[in-house]
Amino acid sequence: MEKAILIPANPDLEFTGGGSEGSIIAHAVRIEDKGADIWRLIVPGNREASDFPHGDIRTAYLYDVREKGVTHVCEIAWVKPLSDIGFREARKYMAEKFKTRRSFEQRAKWFYALKITNIFVLKRVHRPEDFLKYADGKPVVRVRNYCIVQDPHFVHHGKQVTRGEIMSNHMADLLLRGRVTEKDIEDLFYYRLMKDARIVDRQGAFRNVGRLDLLVKDRFGNFVVYELKKGVARPAALEQINKYMKACEKKYNVSAKRISGVILARDAEPELLKALGKGPNVEFKKYWFSIEMK
Prior knowledge:
Blueprint: E1 3-9, H1 24-34, E2 37-42, E3 59-64, E4 69-81, H2 87-93, H3 101-108, E5 111-126, E6 147-150, H4 163-177, H5 182-193, E7 198-202, E8 205-206, E9 210-211, E10 214-217, E11 223-228, E12 232-233, H6 236-252, E13 259-265, E14 267-268, H7 270-276, E15 282-286
Parallel strand pairs: 1-3, 11-13, 12-14, 13-15
Antiparallel strand pairs: 1-6, 2-5, 3-4, 4-5, 7-10, 8-9, 10-11
Helix pairs in contact: 4-5
């Protein structure tokens, strides 16, 4: 009887660093970019991690807390205490970017780690009770931290999950519910921009200026500040983004010629477009969502 591990996950959880362990898209992005991903699990009972008692597990199923069903399956290279992993490997494959080796070592002892190499979508959503606990063969009632189960070998689609597919599904769901927020739009562009540019800052705060949406650095070393608006962009957006650009010049010690701004919105007031025509460093770009029917 083969074992598997059942883990709670949230495909829409924000991926900005620490605290995003449940985010399916966070892990899919790292597998795309790095070839693998390390997912942390809290050791039960608030104990320090010793050898993981089920080190032979090679399959993980992800329970989507929003859908209240098991939606994805992962291939696992290994499961072991996080403290057994080198600092460099943790920095490369984990969501949380530990600043120092000491900070990593202080926290690692409380976690197990799974190294995931692929994530696939199951061909149908399964309920927790479709899984039997490995220890006693009883159906799983609810999924909290993790649960060791008998591997049911549920069928999945053969194509590896990508960030684009997850974001498309997420945005489609929000559109159907009529609940798209400015943060959802920011997430969409964040994951799109990650493929072509390095994210320097997201939601970074500047004293007496405010909090910018996105700051990226392109392959030529130029900085671009993105200001995202849910609806129609107004002239105040230009004043706002110019303040962010000046603040970034000082913080990152770059010349004004190497930093530009982009206002993203569904539309713009004529006054804003007129004002943009007077300066070369900020441009307006329109976004829209469409449904293709064949």
